[in-house]
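Lecture 7 notes: from sequence to structure.

We start with a single chain of 113 residues. Read the sequence below before looking at the structure.
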Amino acid sequence: MTMKRLYLFLLLCGSLHAADWRLLRRAAQVAACAATAADAATTLRPGLRETNPLLGQGASVIGIKLGVCAGQIAFAEWRSRRHFEIEKPVTFAAFGEAGVFTVLAIRNSRIKP
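Now the structure, written as C-alpha cells:
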C-alpha cells in the first residue's frame, strides 16, 4: 500500500511540474474566491455576527471579502504578465487562502446561533 501511495505522489508531482501554471493559478483563485464567499455566507446567518471589527456587520462583510478577493486576482494577473516566476508562489498562496477560508466556513457553519 505504501509503494502505491509513493507512485501516486510522484505521478502527481510530475504532472504539477509539467502543468500549465496559468491554468492552475486561475483554478486556485476560483477556489479561494468560492471559499471566501462561503465564509461570508456562513458568517451572515441569522443570529451570528462577524467578530472582526474591521469588516463591520451586515452586507458590508460580503463586499469587503469579495473585494479583497478580486483585488488579489487583479494583482496576480497584472504582475504575472511581466514576471512569470511569480505564478508558482501566487498559486500556492491562493490554494492556502482557499484552505483557510474553507476551514473558517466549516467552523462558522458549526456555530449554533
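The CA atoms of residues 43 and 50 lie 6 Å apart. Keep this in mind for problem set 3.
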